[in-house]
């Protein structure tokens, strides 16, 4: 008899995001990616013989409430978030799923931020794009 395959997924409620050891409640979105540069390896003829790897690139984005941004500014040198450095830990844990997973984004640096709002907004959300130097999956 074949093993049963469980297709339960993680929802946003199952994800915790920590930065510099703090789990922030005001994070609405966390996105991160790894991109590896590739190139064709050409030799005799006009078709590639292989695909070769180049450098890795890592980037991501957090979407946070303005109050959470203020908490981070309190920890930043001169209140400037773009001067912060640290790791982001993303933990995926669900009571009905095993095993849980944790990804670590090493040495992140926020590249910019923009604050603003418009009439009718119920709260302010700020996006923080960032770059980082290494991704440790399933730690």
What does this entry look like structurally?
This protein is mostly beta strands and 139 residues long. The chain has one domain: Roll (Pnp Oxidase, Chain A). The protein has one helix and eight strands. Strand 5 and strand 6 form a beta hairpin. The longest helix is centred in the middle third of the chain and has 10 residues, at 66-75. The chain is globular, with a radius of gyration of 20 Å. The two termini are 33 Å apart.
Largest sheet: 8 strands, antiparallel
**So how many helices?**
1
Number of strands: 8
Please estimate the helix content: under 10%
Task: Write a brief caption for the model.
With 139 residues, the protein is mainly beta. Helices cover 7% and strands 47% of the residues. The chain has one domain: Roll (Pnp Oxidase, Chain A).
């Amino acid at each position: 008899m074949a093993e049963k395959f469980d297709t339960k997924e993680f929802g946003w409620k199952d994800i915790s995001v920590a930065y510099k050891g703090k789990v922030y409640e005001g994070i609405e979105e966390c996105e991160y990616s790894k991109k590896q540069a590739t190139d064709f390896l050409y030799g005799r003829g006009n078709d590639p013989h292989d695909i070769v790897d180049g450098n890795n690139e890592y980037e991501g984005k957090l979407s946070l409430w303005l109050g959470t941004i203020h908490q981070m500014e309190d920890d930043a040198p001169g209140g400037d978030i773009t001067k912060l450095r640290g790791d982001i830990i993303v933990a995926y844990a669900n009571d009905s799923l095993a095993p849980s997973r944790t990804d670590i984004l090493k040495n992140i640096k926020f590249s910019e931020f923009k604050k603003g709002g418009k009439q009718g907004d119920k709260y302010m959300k700020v996006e923080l794009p960032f770059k980082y130097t290494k991704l440790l999956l399933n730690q």
